[in-house]
Amino acid sequence: MSSSRPAQSSTSSSRSRHSARIIAQTTVDAKLDAEFEEHGDSFDYSQSVRAHQASDPEHQRSEKVTAYLQHIQKGKLIQPFGCLLALDEKTFKVIAYSENAPEILTMVSHAVPSVGDHPTLGIGTDARTLFTSPSTAALQKALGFPEVSLLNPILVHCKTSGKPFYAIVHRVTACLIVDFEPVKPSEVPMTAAGALQSYKLAAKAISKLQSLPGGSMEKLCHTVVEEVFELTGYDRVMAYKFHEDDHGEVFAEITKPGLEPYLGLHYPATDIPQAARFLFMKSKVRMICDCRAKPVKVYQDEKLPFDITFCGSTLRAPHSCHLQYMENMNSIASLVMAVVVNEGEADDDAEPGQQQQKRKRLWGLVVCHHESPRFVPFPLRYACEFLMQVFAIHVNKEHELENQMREKNILRTQTLLCDMLLREAAPLSIISQTPNVMDLVRCDGAALLYQNKIWRLGVTPTESQIRDIAYWLSECHMDSTGLSTDSLHDAGYPGAQALGDIVCGMAAARITSKDILFWFRSHTAAEIRWGGAKHDPFDKDDGRRMHPRSSFKAFLEVVKMRGLPWNDYEMDAIHSLQLILRGTFNDTESGSRNAATLDSQLHDLKLEGMVELQAVTNEMVRLIETATVPILAVDVNGLVNGWNLKIAQLTGLSVDQAIGRDLLTLVEDCSTDAVKKMLYLALQGKEEQNVQFQMKTHGPRMEDGPVILVVNACASRDINDQVVGVCFVAQDMTGHKMVMDKFTQIEGDYKAIIQNPSPLIPPIFGADEFGWCSEWNAAMTKLSGWQRDEVIDKMLLGEVFGGPMACCRLKNQNAFVNLSVVINNAMTGQETEKTPFSFINRDGKHVECLLSVSKKVGTEGVVTGVFCFLHIASHELQQALQVQQLSEQTAMKRLKALAYIRHEIRNPLSGIKYSRKMLEGTDLDEQQTQVLSTAAKCHHQLNRILDDLDLENIMDSCLDLEMDEFALHDVVVSAVSQVMIPSQGKGIRIICDLSEGFMTEVVYGDNLRLQQILADFLLVSVNFSPNGGHVEITASLIKDQLGESLHLIHLELRIIHTGSGVPEELLSQMFGNDDDPSEEGLSLLVCRKLLRLMNGDVRYLREASKSAFIISVELASAPKNKGKWARV
Fold it and tell me: What is the annotated quaternary arrangement, including any partners (predicted)?
């Protein structure tokens, strides 16, 4: 595979190679199928795979391939768990039926019928005579739907027996295929259409997927197999991933106990034939109830001039080869779901005027196996299909994230390598230094042939072998700029056998006629990771049996003498480096660049850059002035220096009148604090998003009341990156808020809003509980171009919003799935956030907006549908909402983690308490008793902190303090004990310079909170004291007599520590001047709030060589207890 790379995009070349590979693989599939049918039990799978991988597919007869594809697509056998009819669309007459259909659909229940009321079933029968009138009406309605599958399943009842069936309808050329599946007696029949009801079955699984953090494909796949395992009840569920060369890998797996794991096994591409993959792209879910059940024939009208294809039927019988495979692995039933993702590039074949769609590819399959017959009702299969669509969106996101990280790493490595080349005349640095060429792409070794010398890294051929490869390249590929291959043996290199498995794949980039850069890869099998136990070495595999283990053996044979294939992005990186090297070193005598010339070029570039920057700046100013969203700006003093036409229109204040005025004079009094805070933070470089405030109106606009804006702040900076002002990009929410307020107040009088022609009413549409469009207001008509009577009573998901045949076309399948999730979340009563939403209106215009969905509740509190509000939002506001949503999700995850820690920490604390109680019952001396008492107080303090459920109560000074009698001495001892370990680690002495009166003082108050405060301030003092320093505690107290025996004590504690002191930033956080404090800052802030609750406060005094926290608090005195107190 030569790597002489043309100027075309790598994606188009990749597409061509993939198409060629599919054709070649289909030929192999056809040959294997023919051999299986011919040899039966004597078919040797492993040997056949090896033989056909080595053969030339060009020599296979095209007639055999065509016959094979027709055999796959036009088989006339179905599984016996249901029956099938093919109906003429115009007459509703039967033109094909399964052999079991007459018995299933016309059998009479509990009575022997007369001839007159027992309809017969055969070719030409009017299908309407077989079912009840409502069932017939439902089937006839399906005929008028372009996307008939949106109505699946259709609940029908037989006229003779009254038995219910799910009719699953799909359209093929000139007829409708209807599969009839039984409804279990224990199953509640589905009466609503399609995904709306099926979604409820998969709601939990979908929520689980959507709550996963990004960045781990393994976690995503493991979660989906777990959810499918729970949802369907199969014995084994696997996520089966296709690699670029079409071979498969079990990427995630979950099984019932006792089953042999297949996790990590790789399989040849022939295990899933290309024809089967094509069918999976069309029919996303495939169920086999019992692989041992005898299939049922389908009879077709012999007068038809064509063969009807039944490959889209849910009942289609499996191929005999696949049945043999299932039997060999002891699997009786299976359920397979396709995972279809975006290819990554747009479809170039889209018709003019149509929006380009991204190509689709089969990423893999989620495969379920069961050791006994198993039937999964269609609604649950539909739910699984919907779950796979959501899963595919997340797979796409993971791929995009991986690509971004990979491109970032490659670009970083390329930049560093290029920098090395600029600093040195020879390319040796990219081999000898770090990073090197091995960091550019994934490889096992690399080598540089330069000026007839060789430098090697990692696993490479010997020097003589590298010279031999270079000679072979010059002789056999003299016209190319290099070569990339996953197999030197297949590429025709004569010495490939001598290299063995150590070096199989190679990418070579020619720098000059004699200088070449090489990358090498070892045998593919070295990259394979096993999951689960391998076979016992004494057990012999029967390669003739089609089984997962023999498939793995066949895969290892196929990839013998082969490395991992080189991806397009890797070849792009290699080609880029090759161009850089060629530009830097044209021949072996090339020297270093002329420094003066380089400086001149850089100077010219800077001048050009300044001119371009000035042009861009002027264009940005023009765009801001003419923007359709309100934009304003202020300088560092808060004076307006920017005021575009939109904000002038909304407020009635012209540009000339606004410039130079203080922004705070232009906003409503209720918004002054919010604007002050926003300005303060923005000038510090902290840009707030999605802040709502109100602006005053002027002149004729005063009667309309204030303008409500949702604003994002953006700090304006000069060329030295200093903040010189603030720009506010806003969104006018006045009309939207009016409607939402009115909507809330009326409580159910929906028509008053929806049918109101006022231009202030935003676009609104709705659906009933069955998914039919039930509301479409005037604003929605204006926005979409579709009249109300054209969309009412159509399926909201599919007919109104959907694919190319829908009224309002969505961007792609992912957009349809996301809309389905949002609407169904609201339908199930979940709270929904504003979601970015876009569609193509009747005029072909792309509409971007925000969608908010609210449930519609009936008089009995039951959800009867949904209302959807559209708000045409600026791009900046949409970004702000996304940031806000991510922040809320992060906060929720932290709360969950905190709740888990709070819960789990209580058991160990109970164990500590029990151990302490046991020690208290033993003979202890006075000092040991004191230590145990200190431990008890620390234990109580931790319990109190764990009970702080709401930090806001502390922040708002709403916490209730507990009043107990305690000794000040005990509080100090307990607080000091909490910092002894960190202080000893730094060699810091803790000095308690406390008077005898203080040590014996007994008071009333919240001892645990005071203990918490002292411990936190002591810890901060220790942390910011130098090694070998000291922390000193002093105290003074003043008593005010309130009565004969009651005194108010004013207690002052000083915690003095050596060193330069606590950083100003941390002190600022302690006083609440930072909206995002650190852990230490939050701790100090809480302590200060607690002190304020005790009528106290804290100050910080900084001196040359020492600093001090000065803590003041008020306590009530208590009668002194007699006894001696131990010294600290």
Answer: Homodimer.
